[in-house]
Known about the structure:
This protein is mainly β. 12% of the residues lie in helices and 45% in strands. It is built from one helix and nine strands; from the N terminus they run αβββββββββ. The chain has an eight-stranded antiparallel beta barrel.
Amino acid sequence: MAKLLHFFGTIFILISFVVFPIIGKKEEYAFEKSINRESVSLKREKLSHFKFYFHDILSGTKPTSIMIVPPPKNTAKTGFGIVNMIDNALTLEPKLSSKIIGRAQGFYGSSSLSELSLLMIMNFNFIEGKYNGSSLAVLGRNSIVETVREMPVIGGSGLFRFARGYVQAKTISLNVKTKDAIVQYDVYVLHY
């Protein structure tokens, strides 16, 4: 009987060295792992061009661009430090009465002491057609005195996941009194 107990005791000890570390082992935490492209529905990448008009309205009873940070005292003539929050209509034609296909939502701020230049941080949120519910993110410098300005597309959502590209902005009209502006945007974006 003693030999049998010794035998089972030895077996139990050997098994416990193998089984208990496995049972008690915690899964290692990893914040990154490789995945295949198909698991996130990545198909063939394509280049698309979008053209629309951005309506920056600061005047009237329903402005779509409002100052959230006024200029500091003793500011430069450029308005350095001013920040505006926007929810601007994106239309198919230059007239605000034309079809609205999305909204530009975000903010811009005067970012230069020596020239009229803005830092633009905004999403183009589309509300029509195939791209309804998708958005493109733009972040860049907009030197508004230049005829055509270029800013990068840094990403997107929905059908624009993994998007990258650039936009070209061209002012179509500017009311110097009200500062209301219509800007044509040509967007060139690589997406899946």
